[in-house]
C-alpha cells in the first residue's frame, strides 16, 4: 500500500476465525492468503472470477430445469413399477403426514439453490450492465444468507445411496433427469467456488475506509474494527452496522457460547427420538417392518453393502455425535479460557462446520425411497417419525455451529493475544 493511500477494507482484513488484522498482499489469479496467526484462509483471488460464476450459474439453471422435466428414476419388480421426476422426491411427502419434511427437503435440494443461482446471476449481470445499487445490495445479502442452506451435493450422495439400496430390492433405471441433476450439482458447486465474496462487494459498492492506520500487528477489536460476516469487509465498529452491506456489526457474536450450548442441548434431546423411533417403514406383501437408523445400517452390513453401510453409519451416527461432542468441548474450553491448542481448536471448529450438513444423507435416502418404492401391498416404503427428528438434529447442530464465534478461542488470555503462534 502506498504511504499516501488511506487504509481501507481493500488493504486490511480481519481474520474470520481469530480476528487478527492482516494486511492483504496483492494476489495474482489463483492465489490465496492465509492468516499468520490461526492459519485459516483469509482472502483468495479465484481465476476468471468475472466470467466463470455467471457461466456456471446459467449452466446450472438450465440443468435444473431439465432435471425437473425429464424422468429422474424408475423402478420395477414382478410386473409392477413406478417412476418419478426430481421434484417428486420431496413432493410425494406433501400428500402424507410429512408435509414439513417434504417442504424442508424441497427447500434444501432445489428451491434455495435456485434462489441463490438467480440472485448470483442477477448480481453478476448487474456488474456488467449497471442497474440499481440498492437492489443489487439486497440480492447479495440474500445470496449469502441462503447459500449455506443449499444441500445439492448431499442430496446427490443420498440419491446414489438410495440407488444401491433399491438395486437389492428391484430393478432400477436411471433417467436423463438424474444426469441433469448431476450436471446441475457440479455446475452449482463450481459457480460458488469461483466467487470471491469480498471482491464482489468491493466491485459493487467499493472499499470502506478504516478511519485508523494499523501499525503493529493486533486484533481488529483492539482498533475498534470488526469483520462484517456477510460482506467480509473490515469496518469501524462505532457505526453499529456495516456501511457496505448494512448488516449489524458485533465485535463478537452476542451470547455466542450460551446460544451454541442451548442449541446443542436441544439437539441432544432430539437425538434420542431420532435414534429410538423408526427411520423407515417398509411394507412387503402385507407385512410391515420398522427400522431405526442403526437397524438400517445392520441390515445393509448383513446384505454385504459394506460401503453404503459405512456411509450411513458415519453420516447418521458418528458425525452427529462427534459434532455435538466437539462443539461441547469447544464451548467448555473457550469458556474456561484455555490458551492451548488454539490453532487446533480453530481447525476443529471449521471441520465441524463443514461436515455437519452431510448427516442429511439418510433423510434424503428415505425421501427418495419413499417417493420411488410405491407398489401397493407388494412393496412400499414410508418415512418414519425419526426422519423428522433427525432432520431437526442436523439443522439445530448447524445453527449451533453458526452461533459459535471462533474468535473467542483467541481472546484469552489477554497477555498472549498479541503473539502469533
Ligand atoms: Zn486468523
Ligand atoms: Zn458488510
TrEMBL record:
Membrane-topology annotation of the record: Multi-pass membrane protein
Source domain of life: Bacteria
Subcellular location: Cell inner membrane
Primary location class: membrane
Database matches in InterPro entries: PqiA-like, PqiA-like_proteobact, PqiA-PqiB_transport
Stretches that traverse the bilayer: 54-73, 103-125, 146-166, 172-189, 260-281, 308-333, 354-374, 386-404
Keywords from the UniProt entry: Cell inner membrane, Cell membrane, Membrane, Transmembrane, Transmembrane helix
Family indicated by similarity: Belongs to the PqiA family.
This protein's name: Paraquat-inducible protein A
Species assigned in the record: Pseudaeromonas paramecii
Phylogenetic classification of the source organism: Bacteria, Pseudomonadati, Pseudomonadota, Gammaproteobacteria, Aeromonadales
